[in-house]
Amino acid sequence: MQEPRRGHEKETAEAAGATDTDNAADFGTFAELDKLVEAGIPAADVAKLRSAGIHTVQGISMQCHKDLVAIKGLSEAKVDKICETARKIAPSGFISAKESMARRLKVTRITTGCAAFDTLLGGGIESMSITEAFGEFRTGKTQIAHTLCVTAQLPRSMGGGNGKVAFIDTESTFRPERIRPIAERFGLDPEATLENIIVARAFTHEHQCQLLAAVAAKLAEDQFSLIVIDSITALFRVDFSGRGELAERQQKLGKMLSNLIKMAEEYNVAVYITNQVVSDPGGGSMFVADPKKPVGGHIMAHASTTRLSLRKGRGEQRIAKIYDSPNLPEVECVFAITEGGICEAKE
Ligand SMILES: Nc1ncnc2c1ncn2[C@@H]1O[C@H](COP(=O)(O)OP(=O)(O)OP(=O)(O)O)[C@@H](O)[C@H]1O
Ligand SMILES: [Mg+2]
Q1: Nearest-CA residue for atom 26 of ligand 1
Q2: 97 domain-assigned
Q3: Based on the domain organization, do 111 and 75 belong to the same domain?
Q4: Is the CB of 140 under 6 A from ligand 1?
Q5: Best of 134, 136, 138, 292 to mutate for ligand 1, by most ligand atoms within 8 A of CB?
Q6: pLDDT > 90 in the chain, percent
Q7: 188 and 248 part of one domain
Q8: Which atom of ligand 1 lies nearest, measured to the CA of 139?
Q9: For ligand 1, mutation pick of 132, 134, 142, 237 (most atoms within 8 Å of CB)
Q10: Is 96 inside any structural domain?
Q11: What is the rounded average pLDDT for all residues in the chain?
């Protein structure tokens, strides 16, 4: 049977100066790799799985057989034995739609700080899925990320995710000093809030990939509620140039996105990624002077559960529109960027 995950929920919230009243809410459940050792798999082999970025029994079923055999020191026979044991510990077959509904109830929603924006999103940024925000520069993609870094730590009763945050910064735009006023706005202790955010600057797409694997290890250790990658595509655009490298770029980007969605489901965390836009001379209607489309093509479109298109309004106002979602209508809302983060737009 699966083990409920360790509850760091209370500690995290309290460390940030909040008290929680709704701890009964359940986080994602996963079985720790030690279960394999208990079931007779040599500890050395389990260590090899860990070094390859696999930290839970469920994580094994999420890998292709060929990728497992490619792990140094694991033979075909060993992989077969590991997979068989993993299937016994954490069966991953059909479940009833009723059970599926019960799983959906574990989904948490993290507030954006703006009620209208939350309504647009059906309650906030969802766990177990990827939310992508794209738009031109200064449309608020990074400011939303900073706000979520704080609200992700709020107790659930306040629309938070009650966990820590991992932030992968590819454009050097993470600003710890922005966290303080946002934390104060939500009544959290700024020092503890900063403490609960781990940040890494990525310099190449390969580095970005390594950092994501490091995040997986952190998720298995501690209670996280949000992963941010700002931006997901920037380094891919730099590292792969021209038509000739497009196929390779898309393949690598697809692999990373597939890892991300698995991590989101495995650990019940929300994933917020930002994306750039490029001109799309052929794609727009005659009414749009300069149509813009998000980078990453179909690979990106399929990976993101919820896609948000952002654009500038007057002054501090910004407009968010649902661009693609399995269960949300294509509507838009107005929000504002302030010192205290994302909030309601004043009329
Ligand atoms: N402390 C603050 N108070 C109010 N507005 C702010 C504050 N800090 C930044 N902004 C506003 O946020 C906007 C920048 O938003 P943001 O950095 O999120 O854009 P972005 O969409 O990430 O752009 P890029 O594509 O360049 O990364 C600017 O208009 C800026 O004036
Ligand atoms: Mg930005």
Answers
A1: 137
A2: no
A3: no
A4: yes
A5: 138
A6: 71
A7: yes
A8: 21
A9: 142
A10: no
A11: 88
Residue that wins the pLDDT comparison between 188 and 32:
188
Give the number of domains in the chain: 2
In a domain, 20, yes or no: no
Report pLDDT digits (tens) over 97-112. 998 888 888 899 999 9
Domain assignment present for residue 218? The answer is yes
pLDDT value for 21:
36
Query: Are 180 and 220 part of one and the same domain?
Result: yes
Q: Are residues 110 and 85 in the same domain?
A: no
Q: Is the CB of 104 under 6 A from ligand 1?
A: no
Q: Domain span at residue 154?
A: 104-344
**Helices 76-89/43-51 angle, 10° precision:** 90
Asked if residue 55 and residue 153 are part of one domain, the reply reads no
Q: Over the stretch 147-180, which tens digit does the pLDDT of each residue have?
A: 999 999 999 999 999 999 999 999 999 999 999 9
What's the CATH code of the domain at 54? 1.10.150.20
Nearest CA, atom 4, ligand 1? 338
pTM: 0.87
